[in-house]
Specification:
Blueprint lengths: L5 H12 L6 E4 L6 H9 L4 E5 L5 H16 L12 H11 L5 E6 L1 H7 L3 H11 L6 E7 L2 H8 L12 E4 L5 H5 L7 H11 L3 H4 L8 H9 L9 H9 L3 H12 L5 H8 L3 H13 L3 E5 L10 E5 L2 H9 L4 H5 L3 H9 L3 H20 L11 E9 L4 E11 L4 E8 L7 H11 L7 E8 L5 H10 L2 E4 H4 L1
Parallel strand pairs: 1-4, 1-5, 2-3, 3-4, 10-11, 11-12
Antiparallel strand pairs: 6-7, 8-9, 9-10
C-alpha cells in the first residue's frame, strides 16, 4: 500500500497536465522513498524508467536502451543497444514530440560520474529538442551534495532547466504511524523514533510482533536489516567513514558543541567542523541555534536529526559483542529498554515542535506560528544554565509560545509548570507569551487548575496524534 506523499504526487500531476516540457528534479537521502514515489506517479502513464548503475558509460547505455525498448518497443527488446546516448535521446525526442512521455533517469549521479559530459549533452537536447515537445523528464538522485550542486547549482550545465524540485524528506510522526496502525500511540511514537520516519525502515516492522520484538530483530540481531545499516550508508557516502562514525556516536551520546566533540573523539576542531558540514548536508545532523539569538555563535549546538542514526549509534556499538554471541535480546532487555524513555525525550520534543508548527498554521493556537526551536542560556539570578524545550514565534506580531515536553511515566507536576513560566522571563521580554505543557502521561489536578486560571495550554500524546 502506498502511504503519504500526497503533496508531491499532486504537484507532479499538475505539472504533467500542462502537456508542455517539464523537468522536475527529485532528490533525497537513501531509503527515503524517491523511487517508490516515482513508480506511483508513472503507474498509469507512458513512461521509460531507467536506473543508472555505478558502472561504465557503456554499461549504462546498454541499460538505458533496455529500459527504452521495454517501455516503447516491447516486441523488439532483443535489439542491440543504441549506438550512443545521442541516438537514444533522438529517439526519445521523436517519441515525445506529439504525445506525452515520462522519462525517468534515477540515480542520475552514477550516470554523470560515468561520463562527466552527460549533463552538457543533456542540456543541449533540452534546449533544442526535448523543450519543444511533450517530454516529462525526471532526474532523481540520492547524493544530496551532487544533486544540489551539479544539477540544481549555478555551476551546472543544467542550471535553470529544472521546472520544479522536490527534496524528499522522511515522514513526520503522524504519517509514520500509518505503517503500524495496530500499535498503541506509545509504540507508534517509538517506531517513529527508531526509524526516523524513513519509509524503507518503517516497512520492515512486522505488525504480528511487538514493537520491542521488532526492534530486537532489526537492530540487535547480526542478520537484522538495520544491524549494519548506518555504517554501510556512511561507507557509501564518505571516504573516511571512521571520523564521521566517531562524530555521530559522540553526538548521539550527548555531546553537542565542537569543543565537546573534539574532546570525546580526539579529533581536531578543524576535522570536526569538516565532518559536521558533510553530515548536515546529508540530513543526518542538524545545526541548532537558540531561538531569538540566532546571531550568537556561542549558542550553537549540533544534534543527530536522523532518528535511526541516533538510536543506532547510542545503543548498537556497545552491544556488538553480545549481539554476535546471539544475546541481542538480553542486551535489549537489560541495557536498551530501561533507557528508552530517556532516548524518547528529545524525539518527543521534535514531535511537539512539529505538532505546534502544524497547529499554528490554522486556528488552533492563539497566533500563527512561523518558526519553532529550542532556547538555552544563563539564568543570572540562579547562576545556572537553563533550557526551554519548545519556543514557537511569530516575530511580526511579537508573540511567542513557550513549552515544556515531558516523556515520562508520571504526570506533570505544578512545580514543572511554574518553572516553565519562570524560564519564560529569561527570553524575549518584549514578546507576548503563551505557555504550553506537553505530556506523555497527563497532568496532576493542580496543574489543570492552574492552566484554567493562567491560560496554559495542555497537550497529551493523544492530542499529538
Amino acid at each position: 500500500m502506498f502511504i503519504g506523499r500526497e503533496n508531491e504526487l499532486s504537484e507532479l500531476e499538475r505539472l504533467y497536465a500542462t502537456d508542455q516540457f517539464q523537468m522536475p528534479v527529485i532528490y533525497g537521502r537513501r531509503r527515503v522513498g524517491k523511487s517508490t514515489l516515482i513508480r506511483q506517479f508513472v503507474r498509469d502513464k507512458r513512461a521509460v524508467v531507467f536506473t543508472a548503475a555505478e558502472s561504465t558509460i557503456e554499461k549504462n547505455l546498454q541499460l538505458f536502451s533496455q529500459s527504452i525498448y521495454a517501455a516503447l518497443l516491447p516486441q523488439m527488446k532483443t535489439l542491440p543497444a543504441f549506438g550512443s546516448f545521442e541516438a537514444a535521446f533522438d529517439f526519445l525526442a521523436e517519441q515525445s514530440g506529439a504525445e506525452r512521455l515520462v522519462v525517468v533517469i534515477d540515480e542520475y549521479p552514477y550516470l554523470a560520474m560515468a561520463d562527466r559530459s552527460i549533463s552538457s549533452r543533456l542540456q543541449n537536447y533540452i534546449d533544442n529538442q526535448f523543450g519543444m515537445g511533450k517530454m516529462f523528464l525526471i532526474l532523481c538522485g540520492s547524493s544530496m551534495s551532487f544533486m544540489e550542486n551539479q544539477v540544481l547549482g549555478y555551476q551546472s550545465p543544467l542550471y535553470g532547466r529544472r521546472t520544479a524540485q522536490f527534496k524528499i524528506m522522511p515522514f513526520d510522526y503522524r504519517t509514520s504511524a500509518l505503517f503500524v496502525p495496530s500499535y498503541n500511540l506509545e509504540d507508534k511514537a517509538l517506531v517513529y523514533a527508531v526509524t526516523g520516519g524513513v519509509p524503507k525502515y518503517l516497512e520492515l516492522f512486522d505488525a504480528g510482533l511487538s514493537v520491542h520484538d521488532n526492534i530486537t530483530r532489526l537492530f540487535f540481531n547480526d542478520s537484522g536489516y538495520l544491524y549494519e545499516e548506518p555504517s554501510n550508508l556512511m561507507k557509501q557516502e564518505m571516504r573516511d567513514a571512521a571520523n564521521y562514525n566517531a562524530v555521530v556516536e559522540a553526538l548521539a551520546c550527548g555531546a553537542n558543541r565542537i569543543s565537546e566533540l573534539s574532546g570525546k573523539t580526539r579529533l581536531s576542531a578543524e576535522t570536526i567542523t569538516y565532518c559536521l558540514k558533510a553530515l548536515v548536508s546529508l540530513g543526518i545532523v542538524r545545526k541548532e541555534s537558540a531561538m531569538t539569538e540566532e546571531n550568537n555563535k556561542k549558542k550553537t549546538h549540533y544534534v543527530v536529526s536522523d532518528g535511526m542514526f541516533c538510536f543506532w549509534y547510542r545503543f548498537v556499538p556497545g552491544g556488538s559483542e553480545m549481539i554476535l554471541l546471539k544475546q541481542g535480546k538480553q542486551y535489549f532487555e537489560e541495557v536498551v529498554k530501561p533507557q528508552l524513555s530517556d532516548f524518547m525525550g528529545r524525539v518527543f520534543e521534535d514531535m511537539c515542535r512539529n505538532f505546534v508548527m502544524c497547529m499554528g498554521g490554522g486556528n488552533s493556537l492563539p497566533f500563527p506560528v512561523m518558526r519553532t526551536g529550542r532556547w538555552w542560556g544563563n539564568n543570572p539570578t540562579l547562576h545556572r544554565e537553563e533550557e526551554i524545550d519548545l519556543v514557537a514565534v511569530n516575530p511580526p506580531q511579537k508573540k511567542m509560545l513557550i513549552g515544556e515536553c515531558k516523556y515520562q511515566r508520571k504526570k506533570i507536576s505544578l512545580e514543572t509548570a511554574r518553572l516553565l513560566m519562570e524560564r519564560g522571563n529569561l527570553i524575549a521580554r518584549d514578546f507576548q507569551k503563551v505557555y504550553a505543557l506537553f505530556s506523555r502521561s497527563g497532568f496532576e489536578s493542580d496543574v489543570e487548575e492552574l492552566a484554567e486560571r493562567q491560560r496554559i495550554l495542555l497537550f497529551t500524546l493523544e492530542d499529538l496524534y
